Known about the structure:
This protein has two helices and no strands. By secondary structure, it is mostly helical. Keywords: Membrane, Transmembrane, Transmembrane helix. It holds the Pfam family Phage_holin_2_1.
Amino acid sequence: MKMIPEKIASAASYCTSAGLICAGSFSDWLRHLDWNQIAIIGGFVIGIATYITNTYFEWRRTRAYERGVDAGIINQPPEKRSLFKKSED
């Protein structure tokens, strides 16, 4: 089957038209977004992701401690890390 220039031009025209329709609808959707709501939802998502990440690493730390105790390497529990340490006077 031979592709004649008219068919190539017609296919390119239809593809360009469909692409512009999709881009126009995306642009219209993007323009009507409420950026305050996006910021609030983004904050919740980041907060939940932070909580899940912290919980996972605390769980790993506990597992490592338990394996160390079982192997006889660790005698006392690890010190809880914090930003502000209390001075022992």
